[in-house]
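Input record (Table S2, row 343):
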Amino acid sequence: MAREIALEIVEKAASLNFERCGIIEVDRMREYGAKVNERIARFPESAGMYRRFLSLAEPDRDFPWARSVVACSWRHGVYRVPEGLAGLIGKSYLFDVRRGRNSEGYRARTEFERCMTKDLGLRVASSHDYGITSCRWAAFASGIGTIRRNNFFYGDHGSHYSLMVFLIDEAMEYTCTPTQKPCSDNCNLCVKNCPTGALAEPYATCGVACVSYLTNRAPDNGAFERYSPKIGSWIYGCDVCQDVCPFNRGEWSEDKDFPGLEELSASISLEKIVTMDYAYLREMIAPKFWYIEIEDLWKWKRNALAAMRNTGHKDYEAALAAALQDDDERIRNLAKRELAAKD
Ligand code: SF4
Ligand code: SF4
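Output record (iron/sulfur cluster complex):
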């Protein structure tokens, strides 16, 4: 019976255009906890950040009825990257389906969950935002793809996927055999090109030094300041270790427009962010790029000012002058400091 239900789940996922779907028993997530502990031992400076992930290895603590984890991969490497946003905002955030209610991925997820609950009679738990267990580990353990040396999940078309996980109350398993070739022994491109050295060695990322974390979720402005000269043009996320990877070559097809992104992108550039009204940041930018909390909107401008400085941006002077009048004292102080450094 469990096998039949597993097959129905996998078939439903395929019919909704998920690239792959696998199912593992919930105990398999314990292996993820061991990996997190290895990471904490390797990067004690990131311990505070990684300890928060340990609970993801035991999703059945919060959901004692959970028996299995369903993992699905949704390919987002098919959308046009709006002009001017490449190198500023990480692609996984541009095409984030988690809160993108009009996106195909969001709708597929909703229908998939409805089917498991209503048609198959399963008890299901999922979370749109951060996941209730490790999406990447569940996807890897179920064999729907692999994890490469840059620590990203790779499916049949490189690393550009949204991963989704669902807890269900029946014990079952449906695993796949990954088809991806391993990284070449001689390849070190991701480690070599990581701008902050966060990817210190294959499979070993110091989370608190990663540009993705520094530009959005990091609570510690001091860490951002320390790494800021190395962050380049990124203001939210970072794609470097994926962009340089040979297994991503030719894997982005740019066939479709992601709902609402083209219109929104017209309001995003380094100078537009620095001079942006906070109400606009709150109402238009924050709902899509929600890793920067509403109370931290000033960080958008901090990041954009740093990117301007790092890239020798043409409107840096004008932006600094505007930033001297900013509503937030932290931005005014940053602008003063930058101007003083120029004199
Ligand atoms: S996302 Fe950027 S900063 Fe983070 S490990 Fe990859 S290259 Fe380094
Ligand atoms: S850049 Fe090279 S080493 Fe890094 S993930 Fe890609 S193939 Fe593997």
